[in-house]
């Protein structure tokens, strides 16, 4: 794959697929600009070389309609101030007016295209739409890992029409950590897998069982495994149709010599509420109660495993951490990862939210910007957006 560092953008126009799908409040103000800041190094590299930048992104789910609330014009002022450049805004992402604006763009200038998903052709991976995007620039740079698992026009199909194509710094870092580091992990290699359902993490578990030394299970998915072991789980979340699958995963882990750890104690609540009555119980959850977090002994045992690890991958919380009374397991694991000397990779979604809430984000080696994309990468799948820019 071509490296952005070794390419000189002087006199070139680069069309960069970024992920500016940022959260906005009811006044259309950005409430978290992490994704914008993550794209800055790639944009600045092109500008420093003397190139011009054309940025394309989606925002929200407008489903093929030009809805004002999903316009990227809401982010122009913040983007301009972040880059220190007066960003120009196009009224669309294709068409004669956009072509003219792109054609007039000079080195050091930045043009932001309007929301790609105002056109259904984007998500359909339409070749004609992708070709029109490609005609705006000389070079294609993909720096949107969060959408790299989608074969959309701007993430994958456009690469067919570009001779020069490469990964931006952010995408390259994701590939190195989620791909190279996981494939060539220093041992002991510990995976922490949580979240609500086994179904969402099945393929990840199957893939990790062939790579890791230890898997630590938390979240709602733990109770499908505990039921598979014959425990009573009360009203805890269980996927009944996956109990046999859970038994098979436990057997596969044993066959592969993987230490597959499940909670040894749990916080059992009488209702799904922060102010619920809470009991700390073992692995048999009393009738009428639901487990909403791992208990203190589990947190301690998991922390001990993490302390001895050289590589840690974490995807999914240990409990309902959004409610303070059920956050101790997740934040305890977070602290253990922060305190360890391991290379730590936080694989998207709720784990990232938990790490950010904990204030320990700067202690992690890599925090992925993609939820679904990071999951698929950990499953060992080749992402369409990555495949498209490989030489």
> What is the strand arrangement across the widest sheet?
3-4-2-1-5-6
Question: Which stretches are low in confidence, meaning pLDDT under 50 for 5 or more residues running?
Answer: none
How many helices does DSSP assign? 14
Mean pLDDT: 94
Structural class: alpha/beta
Pfam families: PGK
Binding site for ATP: 201, 322, 348-351
Protein name: Phosphoglycerate kinase
Enzyme class: transferase
Explain what this protein looks like in three dimensions.
Helices cover 34% and strands 15% of the residues. The chain is an alpha/beta fold and 391 residues long. The protein has helices at residues 34-49, 76-83, 96-104, 120-124, 127-134, 169-183, 202-208, 222-228, 243-255, 296-307, 328-339, 350-358, 372-378, 384-387, and strands at residues 13-17, 52-56, 88-89, 110-112, 139-142, 164-167, 189-193, 214-217, 259-261, 266-269, 278-281, 290-294, 311-315, 343-346, 366-367. Strands 3-4-2-1-5-6 form a six-stranded parallel β-sheet. The protein has a six-stranded parallel β-sheet with strand order 9-8-7-13-14-15, with helices on both faces. It has a three-stranded antiparallel β-sheet with strand order 11-10-12.
